[in-house]
Design goal:
Number of helices: 12
Number of domains: 2
Distance between the termini: 13 Å
Shape: globular
Number of strands: 13
Largest sheet: 8 strands, parallel
CATH superfamily of the largest domain: Aldolase class I
CATH class of the largest domain: Alpha Beta
Strand content: 15-25%
CATH architecture of the largest domain: Alpha-Beta Barrel
Length: 331
Amino acid sequence: MNLIILKQSKWGFILNLPQLKIGHMEPKVPILQGGMGVGISLSGLASAVANAGGIGIISGTGISTDELKFHIKRAKEKIIGQGYIGVNVLFAMNDFAEKMKAAIEEKVDFIISGAGISRDMYSWGKESGIPVISIVSTAKLARLSERLGASAVVVEGCEAGGHLGTDRPLFEILPEVVEAVNIPVIAAGGILTGEDVAKAIQMGASGVQMGTRFVASEECDAPFAFKEKYVNAKKEDTILVKTTVGLQGRAIKNKFTDLISGTGKLKIDKCHDCLKNCSYRFCTLDSLLKSVGGDVENGLVFAGARVSEIKQILPVHTIIQNITDEYLAVK
């Protein structure tokens, strides 16, 4: 007989969700918070998720190495008791190696990377004893990641916000990746509710990664105008745009997405020289910096396909409590 176990927490009773284990990490709930740049998931959001029993991620994209080190230290200081903090570094960025080495120096619990695969990152992780997690969209990339030394893979479907590596939905790809590897598989892209978590775990996932839901939280590092854009979004408001990274990105419609919907080149005030390969049609980093600065009409506001279902900005612990309650209702 399967038993559903409840445990007392300072927020009431929460379900003991299935145990996720990656290296030394055994969070209370099998939920990773997505590493969202630029300036969306920093120490505030990451530490709140870690304190609520999940795994927090600081995005190293679009901030300096010194700022990254500051946020790692700050997140660790804010954690009460046991909690896990990792850093997301994008392989497509010119400062990939510098940011990864900084994260290792600060002794983060893990490093997660997408937008390409580097053999070096696995060897650096192995040398330092820090788990490295790869973001993939195919079984082939998952197998390669495992062979190179990944401790886990995040499989991301087309429902995710930000840059996308596939046009296939998560629950179509997930079984293929689960079958292909022997390391933990984390489901990502369009995960919002406890019902979604239950479905992912039933299909073989060891846990889930959630980004969009945590943006509309009190502790998220994004400005209020950014969060407000989320709770006001309608179903028809998300759009796919081709960014200068060379990938499709899912964002909320605004003046800027209208501007870049054509094929013309936009005037760039300053090139940040941030990408290894860039189309230079406009500046993706600058557009993200504008939106995180509060100008949510003239910058990119990345969001997942189901953003319209989010109606409230809530504390992180309430979001996780709601997910566990929903999971219990399904089970």
